């Protein structure tokens, strides 16, 4: 009987974590799409939303960490059930039209306030569910590692992200999406509150866990047929004493590795969306790869091969740096008689997007693979997740709040690429440090010299984004505006000054005195509006109504 109860409890934990993770990730594109038109429909809306979700996730993990340290099981159960009930009473999550801003002042603050008022408490409860349920599981089923439930939660999150743009978004209006999500949260509330009560009651019967056989506990699918295979391999890899308190170095790894992964997630999302329509699919793809790396790394330590992923990540960053230095590389090749145009292979949008998304996945695999290698025993589980979520929030704060105030252009991607290259180099170095060649003085000298030269290439490439032709650059919530001047050495009449939003040209003007009134770009005589006016023959002056914004398209 005890065995059956333990198996039922394990399935109950798995179902609760899966549903909470599904709702946790699906609410992000739902609420973001609802408010997207209210705040200019730019990629910064998603960045601000991601910042809110990461910070709230940190709050949920902190709550889980501290509530598990309450001395009374009755208090732990009562506080959490009460919080679930209060969160359910705040439904539905659909924001009222009164939240819509009347001007463009302080958009980030307004987005954060809107999200806190409409989805803050339900998201907080969902965020706390993963570490809490894993803590309950490890207490009542001590023979199984709870970390694979974390992989299951990321499967639920990835499922939510993949189904949203292909199922929920095309079939339902945003109001229906909000209503369906609110109904699913009510089901989750009943499920989680019941599990909390069952855990409280089971905790008063200590023989339940000890009488259960490990074979009766639900197991998440694994490529290994041996029940303890993963646990033994993980212990060998990290060599952790279960009774030893995690060191400061290990805790910093828990913080900084997720921070870099989060930073690259937001920076690459911004870059991919900068010149593309801001639709949920372009938010989902990077976030889906980010979660996929969590699933792979936390499912089984064997999936992450340090040397392979370290070397591939180094090569990928270096290749991307070469494409950023395309003109420099082409000039060098021309000097040795080689004609090769890199832009032919990188000019297509899908090629560029694939390059950056692949880069994101590799960096996340290295970050999360190293994170798994230094994860602690189960008694430090909530502390571990607290530091991981703090790292994610730290990366989000850096990209969404600090960078727009400090930099006039998108420098965070360049900083992230340099940091990723250094991390991958460090991983490779650590993995080959015990080889014969690395034990020799000449081997270390060659390795250091090669790593330093390659790092210089990566760093040099990041300066290419600082446009030397720019007269003025300004960055705000809605993007980066650049005014640049291009001089024609052969014919000064073709000298122009132009305005760009990111890499999109929004207007230009000839500098020559006799041509500075000529229509250009969208407005030249060969454009649609130019042809319409040219062919409109009338003896009277034309009255033309023009709708546009600044130098935007008519």
What can you tell me about this protein's structure?
The chain has helices spanning 2-35, 43-67, 73-89, 107-118, 120-140, 147-171, 174-203, 207-211, 229-238, 248-274, 280-299, 306-324, 326-335, 343-346, 349-373, 381-406, 412-432, 441-462, 528-534, and strands at 470-476, 479-486, 496-501, 504-510. It has 554 residues and is mainly alpha-helical. Strands 1-2-3-4 form a four-stranded antiparallel sheet, with no helix packed on it. The radius of gyration is 27 Å and the shape is flat. Residues 206-238 have low confidence and may be disordered.
Features:
554 residues, mainly alpha, four-stranded antiparallel sheet
Radius of gyration: 27 Å
Which outline best applies? Answer: flat
Structural class by helix and strand composition: mainly alpha
Low-confidence stretches: 206-238
The share of residues in extended strands comes to 5-15%
Helix content bin: 55-70%
Give the strand order of the largest sheet, numbering strands 1, 2, ... along the chain.
1-2-3-4
**Can you write the helix and strand succession as a string?**
HHHHHHHHHHHHHHHHHHEEEEH
Short characterization:
With 554 residues, this protein is mostly helical. Helix content is 65%, strand content 5%. Strands 1-2-3-4 form a four-stranded antiparallel sheet, with no helix packed on it.
List the helices and strands and how they pair.
Layout: H1 2-35, H2 43-67, H3 73-89, H4 107-118, H5 120-140, H6 147-171, H7 174-203, H8 207-211, H9 229-238, H10 248-274, H11 280-299, H12 306-324, H13 326-335, H14 343-346, H15 349-373, H16 381-406, H17 412-432, H18 441-462, E1 470-476, E2 479-486, E3 496-501, E4 504-510, H19 528-534
Antiparallel strand pairs: 1-2, 2-3, 3-4
